[in-house]
Design goal:
Elements (H helix, E strand, L loop, with lengths): L3 H7 L1 E7 L9 E6 L5 H12 L8 E5 L4 E3 L6 H4 L6 E6 L1 E7 L5 E7 L4 H12 L7 E4 L3 H13 L8 E3 L46 H8 L7 H6 L6 H7 L20 E6 L13 H16 L7 H20 L14 H14 L6 H6 L3 E10 L7 E10 L2 E5 L11 E4 L4 E7 L4 E10 L2 E9 L2 H15 L9 H15 L5 H4 L15 H6 L2 H12 L7 H13 L7 E7 L6 E5 L3 E5 L6 E6 L3 E7 L4 E6 L3 E7 L4 H14 L12 H8 L4
Parallel strand pairs: 1-5, 6-10, 7-9
Antiparallel strand pairs: 1-2, 3-4, 3-5, 6-7, 8-10, 11-12, 11-17, 12-13, 13-14, 15-16, 16-17, 18-19, 18-24, 19-20, 20-21, 22-23, 23-24
Helix pairs in contact: 9-18, 10-17, 10-18, 13-14, 19-20
Length: 678
């Protein structure tokens, strides 16, 4: 037996501050502890000393100096490294957080500040009924955007009161993760696939979801655009360097909110970080589709992504359609008048569609015979010191290569040149009104990129060749099952662009109550008068006016995905051995080195050719090895190198998803691919 005096010599005092609402009870407590006391024992001692009768189950110890949670309750103080100079906080793990969604609405809800961000985002998405939470993450607003907001608030005479959707009664407030939400697959049609509204017979199934019909309406539907004045006051990136700043604030998915300095009632942005939208289904994804649509819409309005005038008018027409449809028709928002859905019948019809699958008659043909394209096209080669040359040739597209010959008759012999398109950049160069259908190819060569243009005669020829080029750049041939859907997607986008002036439709632009300046970026509001813009938007509107609401949003998303810059997240980096800064574009399938001054691509590296990547944490350098003994290394100047490391690993993680899997994610694999070893 050890005497009390001997025991006392090994014990020491530990200061713990307690976060509670009782004014009459002290906030700081001194506990007499020993190094072999476990964390659970410390918490038990503390609660006994506080003498307040309440539920302490959500409380845990936070070590302020080390910025870490002490969540392993079986670990001793010695094992954690806690000594007498430590100051611990006994505080709740779930705290209130404000999240600004892609549709610019702010929600306030309880979030776990002790879980890693990856898991916290998963819980948030369950509350908001957004499937595939792995595509989203939390982002701190850029400093430039915050400065602009402060300047706007300072200049504003009336204090702006933000409309906040309060979801603090969510299941997470009790420390539990959210329920299945509205996208549970136990019953088939959760949302009407035409209007996107929650089916009336399903809205009451999940009483644990804080999303009432009204709240779901706010998240699942687009609302009238902000005024041009408000748009002008919002931060708009002007250069590639500005765009790089937007991506600097992504939180580390492998650490908790508290560990990254986020405090209760702080505001963060919830955004789609990875641009691979898997398994979009109007039946389950009304909120998800709308939030993707909104993120795309704001990216276009604030010129975070570049598009042509023709494309801007298409986007404007789809937006104008949404707003006019919603304001003129109450039926889209009326949940109560939805017809009841017979679940059994709906389930059977869904099963029938699933069992039917696609057209299987061509499967054997696809496996045994790789199709080829052969046609007359014009080749355009830019010359540095003279005008570009445009010559007609006979082109043959086979496997992932394009060969061209002087004419059709000479196609049996050796080609003039054979271009291997694997790993190249494919950029559309189209103006439908001017009947210009071009394909710009940037083909990797030893000292940079070889620039080649192909000119097609018409839309159908362009769609076939463009789809073949896109697939070849990814290392796929026209035998791939995605070739025909890609052709169809390109043709449908061209059809939207190909509007004809209808005097009846545009004779009176004022007949539709819309402010055209709300649907285009500031560049075009400065270029055209309001009536001119309205007339041009209404011309483009004719091609989309018959679409159901959800289809129009999906078309908008598809059109956004067709833009050359889609899915690129920019970072300013310094490559090893280089004396100047470059921009690195990170996409779902490749990395692009871009000249910071001109914006021209220099080199492209595909993830499919990547052998390994790692980080030297001492010098904060990312090193990547590719096939054929190609290796690169760079330091990141606009963000922490961990951010780029996580982006690359995240995209590789997302590429492992398949429709056969259930929706539970392999979180360990995600952290293995993205965490790195600091």
């Amino acid at each position: 037996m050890i005497s009390s005096s001997e025991y006392g010599s090994h014990s020491w005092e530990l200061l713990v501050a307690v976060e509670h609402q009782h004014e009459e009870v002290q906030k700081e407590f001194l506990l007499q502890v020993t190094g072999d006391l476990h964390i659970g024992g410390v918490m038990l001692k503390l609660v006994e000393q506080i003498k307040i009768s309440q539920d302490w189950s959500d409380y845990a110890l936070w070590w302020e100096q080390k910025k870490c949670w002490l969540l392993k309750t079986h670990w001793t103080l010695d094992k954690c490294g806690v000594q007498a100079d430590a100051k611990l906080f006994f505080t709740t793990q779930h705290k209130m957080l404000r999240l600004r969604l892609p549709n610019m609405k702010t929600v306030r809800l309880k979030v776990s500040f002790s879980s890693v961000v990856f898991r916290a985002v998963s819980d948030i998405c369950k509350i908001l009924n957004i499937r595939r939470s792995e595509e989203l993450s939390l982002l701190k607003q850029s400093e430039d955007a915050l400065k602009k907001k402060k300047k706007k608030d300072k200049n504003s005479k009336d204090p702006v009161t933000e409309d906040i959707l309060n979801l603090c009664n969510s299941p997470m407030s009790s420390g539990l993760s959210g329920g299945p939400g509205l996208y549970s697959k136990t019953m088939t049609p959760t949302y009407d696939p035409i209007s996107g509204t929650p089916a009336a017979s399903t809205i009451t199934w999940f009483s644990d979801s804080p999303l009432t019909e009204q709240n779901c309406n706010i998240l699942a539907f687009s609302h009238p655009n902000c005024s041009p004045e408000t748009l002008a006051e919002m931060y708009q990136p002007r250069t590639l360097a500005d765009k790089a700043k937007l991506n600097a604030g992504w939180l580390d998915s492998s650490r908790s909110l508290m560990e990254q300095g986020i405090l209760e009632e702080d505001q963060l942005l919830l955004r789609f970080k990875y641009y691979t939208f898997f398994d979009l289904n109007p039946k389950y994804d009304s909120v998800r589709i709308n939030q993707i649509y909104e993120q795309a819409r704001w990216a276009i309005l604030l010129e975070e992504i570049d598009c042509t005038e023709e494309e801007m008018l298409i986007f404007a027409a789809l937006q104008a359609y949404h707003v006019s449809k919603l304001s003129l028709s109450s039926e889209a928002q009326d949940f109560t008048c939805e017809s009841e859905v017979d679940e059994v019948e709906a389930a059977l019809s869904n099963l029938e569609v699933t069992l039917e699958g696609g057209n299987t008659s061509n499967i054997l043909e696809d496996i045994t015979d790789i199709p080829k394209l052969a046609d007359n096209l014009r080749l355009v080669r830019p010359r540095k010191l003279s005008l570009k040359t445009i010559k007609p040739y006979w082109f043959v597209f086979k496997d992932t290569s394009v060969s061209y010959f002087k004419n059709k008759e000479s196609a049996q012999g050796e080609p003039i040149e054979k271009l291997n398109l694997k790993g190249c950049e494919v950029v559309p160069d189209v103006n439908v009104a001017a009947k210009k259908f071009g394909i710009k190819l940037l083909i990797p060569v030893a000292d940079g990129m070889n620039e080649v243009y192909l000119r097609c005669e018409n839309e159908n020829q362009y769609a076939r060749w463009m789809a073949a080029c896109v697939l070849a750049s990814k290392g796929k041939t026209m035998a791939d099952s995605s070739y025909h859907p890609e052709v169809h997607k390109i043709l449908s986008f061209l059809k939207m662009k190909n509007w004809t002036m209808s005097p009846q439709a545009v004779s009176d632009p004022e007949s539709i109550d819309m402010k055209p300046e709300c649907f285009v970026s500031l560049r075009y509001t400065k270029k055209y008068k309001s009536k001119q813009l309205a007339a041009r938007i209404l011309e483009a509107h004719q091609n989309v006016s018959q679409m159901p609401l959800v289809e129009a949003k999906l078309r908008f998303i598809q059109a956004w995905q067709s833009l050359p810059e889609f899915g690129l997240s920019y970072y300013i980096v310094r490559f090893k051995g280089s004396k100047k800064d470059d921009v690195l574009g990170v996409s779902y399938n490749r990395l692009i080195r871009i000249d910071i001054a001109t914006g021209d691509p220099i080199t492209t590296w595909r993830f499919s050719n990547m052998k390994q990547w790692n980080v030297n944490w001492e010098i904060r350098q990312v090193a990547i090895e590719f096939d054929q003994n190609v290796s690169i290394a760079f330091t990141c100047l606009s963000a922490d190198c961990k951010t780029i490391h996580e982006y690359i690993g995240g995209y590789i993680f997302l590429s492992t998803r398949s429709k056969g899997q259930n929706e539970t994610l392999d979180e360990d694999l995600f952290h293995k691919l993205t965490g790195g070893q600091e």
